[in-house]
Design brief:
By secondary structure, the chain is of the alpha/beta class. The protein has two domains: about 170 residues, Rossmann fold (3-Layer(aba) Sandwich); about 140 residues, Rossmann fold (3-Layer(aba) Sandwich), CATH 3.40.50.2300. About 40% of the residues lie in helices and about 20% in strands. It contains ten helices and 13 strands. The strands form two sheets. It has a seven-stranded mixed β-sheet with strand order 1-3-2-4-5-6-12, sandwiched between helices. A six-stranded mixed β-sheet has the order 8-7-9-10-11-13, with helices on both faces. α2 packs parallel to α10. The longest helix has 19 residues. It is elongated, with a radius of gyration of 21 Å.
Length: about 325
Amino acid sequence: MKCAKRILFIGLALLLAAGTVFAGGGGQQGGGAAAPTIANSPLAGKRIGVAHITLYDEWCKGVYDDFIRIGKEYGVAEMNIQNGDLNAETQQKQVEDFITQKYDLIFIDPVSPNGIKATLDKAAAAGIPVIAFDSGTDWTPLISHIAWDHAETGRLTGRYLADYAKKNLGGKIKVGILAMLDAPHTAIRSQTFKETLEAGLGKANIQYVFEQDFGQTRESATNIVTNNIAKPIDVIWGAVDNAAFGARVALQTNGVRGTKVVSAGAWGKEPFSTLAAKDSYYMMCIGVPPEGIVRKSMETAAAYFSGNKNIPREQNIDLAVVDESNIANYRSYY
C-alpha cells in the first residue's frame, strides 16, 4: 500500500503552546516544533522535501525516522517525506509537487537514476538544490550524492563467504542468491559479490544453486528458497534483509539444518537481536547505519546553504561486517 507521510515542524512558539510534537500519516499534516540544537543552523526555517525510494524495510524506515529527528536538531521548519514505493512515476510526481510548492531543498533516493533527470531539470530551473542519498544519479547539477558503497557490500560479503568456505567447507561452496535487480544500487551488490567470491575460491569451487531476483517481499524470498529446498545449499546470500529473513523463514519452516544466511545490507533490532541470540541460520550482515546517511546529508545541506563551494560530489559513510564476533558492540540497538 502506498504510504505518504508528512511531518511539519512549525516554530518554537507552537511547541511551547502545544507542548508536544505530532506526526501525521496518510497524507495528513502534523505539526510540532523544537528549537534547533545546532547553533546558528543554516537550515533553520527551511522547508525540505524528501523523495524516499521506499519504506518497505527497517532500514528505510530508520532513514525516515532519522530525517525527522535530525531535521529538528537543525531547526527545519518543514520536513515533507514522501514514499516513492519503488515506483519511478510516483516519485516523479512527488518531486514535481515539491517544485510546485517551492521547497528550499530536495533530498532524493532515486527509483530511476536516469528517468528522474528531466524532473530534476525542473528543480534546477526553479533554483531548488538537490542532494541524492543512498542510490544516486549522474544528473549534472546535483550538489552531492551521499551513500554507502553498494559495490563494497558485495565485496565484503564475498570475502566473508570465501573465508567461511575455506575454514568450514574445504574451499568449496554451494550458494543461493536472492538478488534485488529493480534498482541499480542493489543490483550491483550481487554482481560484486559473485566477482569477489569467484576471485577468492575459483569458479570451479562454487555452485550457484539458484540465482533469482526476489523482488522486495519476504514472502517472495521464502517462496524462492522453498522451491529450491531439496537441493543442498551451504549459504543463501540476500541483497537486503527482507531477502535474508525470507530465506530464514523457509529454512526454519522446512526444518533445514546447516544452511547459513547472510545479508548485504541491514540495520536495527531485528538483525542485531537475531545475531546476538546466536541464530542457527542468520550468520552475518553488512551494518549500514541510517543515521550516517541522514546526518551526512543534512551536514551537506547545511554546508550548501552556508555558501560552501567545495562540497564533494560523492560521499560515502562507513560500513561494518557484523556477526557473532562483534555483535556486542551493537547492544544498544537490540
